[in-house]
Design brief:
240 residues; alpha/beta; Rossmann fold; single chain; seven-stranded mixed sheet
C-alpha cells in the first residue's frame, strides 16, 4: 500500500482530525506471512530479531516445519538470529545446534561484535512489537544502531481488524497471547514508525494471514481474499 500525500500530512502531524476516514489498499498477492518472509529472504543476508519464540512452542513448530527461523536459514545466504530471551537461545543452540544465535537487548546493549561490521539486506522483526512496552523507543533505537548495517526492515504485527476479533467480539470475549500489549491498525502502526524517525516515503504496507488456513477454513479464506483488511497480520517494509 502506497501512502497518499493527504495521509502523509496526518501521519507526520501537520494535519489533525478527530474522525478522519482512510481507505486502504493491498499491494501483494501473497496471502501468508511466513511465505512472504521466506521468499523475500531467499539468497539474502538477513538478521532475524525476535528469532527464539516462546520456549513452550519451539519443539512443536520445528516438528511441523513451521518454525520461521529454521525456514529462513534454509533459504538465506547469511542468517543471524537475535533475541532477548536467553533461555530460548540456549535451548535452540543445545538441542538443535542452530548457528549464529545471539542473546541481545536492542535497547540496552551495544551492537554485538558478530554483526557490527557486517552488511545485511533485511532486518526481520516478525510479531515482536506487540510485546514491547514502548514500540517507538524500540524502533528508534533500531534505526540508530543498525542504520549502517541494514538496507531494509520488514516487520509484522497483529491486525486489530482481524475477522477473528470481530467474531469474538460478537461473543463477548477476547482471545489473545497474554504477553501482548497492543493490537495495530494500518494507521497506528504507520504512526509509531513515523514517530520513531523513519521516512514515510520509504514505507510499504500489506495485509496477510499469519498461519496457513486448512480446508475447513474455506469460508474464511473466501472472506479474507475479498476483504483483505480482515486478515490477521500487517506487514510493513521500511527502507533506511
Amino acid at each position: 500500500m502506497s501512502y497518499s500525500e493527504e495521509l502523509k500530512e496526518y501521519l507526520i502531524g501537520t494535519e489533525f482530525s478527530n474522525g478522519k476516514t482512510f481507505e486502504w489498499e493491498n499491494n501483494s498477492d501473497t496471502l501468508y506471512r511466513d511465505e512472504y518472509f521466506v521468499e523475500k529472504c531467499r539468497n539474502k543476508r538477513i538478521i532475524h530479531l525476535g528469532c527464539a519464540d516462546h520456549i513452550e512452542l519451539i519443539d512443536k513448530k520445528i516438528a511441523h516445519n513451521s518454525y520461521l527461523h529454521s525456514n529462513l536459514i534454509s533459504v538465506s545466504n547469511v542468517c543471524y538470529g537475535i533475541d532477548i530471551n536467553h533461555e530460548s537461545i540456549e535451548y535452540l543452540q543445545n538441542k538443535y545446534n542452530i548457528p549464529n544465535l545471539i542473546t541481545f537487548d536492542i535497547v540496552n546493549d551495544p551492537l554485538p561484535k558478530e554483526i557490527k561490521n557486517l552488511k545485511f539486506d533485511y532486518l526481520l522483526i516478525p510479531d515482536v512489537i506487540e510485546h514491547i512496552g514502548n514500540p517507538v523507543i524500540f524502533l528508534a533505537t533500531i534505526k540508530d544502531k543498525l542504520k549502517h548495517n541494514v538496507n531494509e526492515i520488514i516487520l509484522s504485527v497483529p491486525n486489530a481488524f482481524s475477522i477473528n476479533n470481530f467474531i469474538n467480539a460478537f461473543k463477548g470475549r477476547e482471545i489473545i497471547n497474554t504477553d501482548h500489549r497492543f493490537w495495530f491498525t494500518p494507521y497506528t502502526l504507520s504512526k509509531i514508525v513515523i514517530d520513531a524517525g523513519y521516512d514515510i516515503k520509504e514505507m510499504d504496507l500489506m495485509f496477510c494471514e499469519h498461519g496457513k488456513l486448512s480446508c475447513r477454513n474455506l469460508f474464511k479464506r473466501l472472506i479474507i481474499s475479498k476483504y483483505f483488511v480482515l486478515r490477521d497480520t500487517l506487514i510493513l517494509n521500511i527502507k533506511f
